[in-house]
Amino acid sequence: MRDDARSLPTTHSRFSPMPLTLFLKDECHLCDDALLVLARAGIADFESVYIEDSPDLMVRYGTRVPVLKADEGLELDWPFSVDDAAGAAAPRT
Q1: How many CB atoms within 10 Å of residue 56?
Q2: Contact (CB, 8 A) for 24 and 49
Q3: If you count DSSP H runs as helices and E runs as strands, how many of each does the chain have, helices first?
Q4: Which superfamily does 18-89 belong to?
Q5: Calpha distance 67→22 (Å, rounded)
Q6: Residue 6 DSSP SS3
Q7: What's the pTM?
């Protein structure tokens, strides 16, 4: 992750009640951008899964990363916005 990601102000200050997973790769500038979007959305509680560690995940997500997945199965392919990420984190009623 780039150092500038830690110092960016957030546009939302929202707690992330919905478990989220970010599928990403090392040395992926789009993945760095996705991390910045999550920071701007105020989403700090998510799991990072590096897909290079799993052949199955490489097949599923290799050309799609970064992908943000909500616990109920919703997947957001890149590019996603601050509002998209916040919507994925919002609890479902």
Answers
A1: 8
A2: yes
A3: 3, 4
A4: Glutaredoxin (3.40.30.10)
A5: 6
A6: helix
A7: 0.79
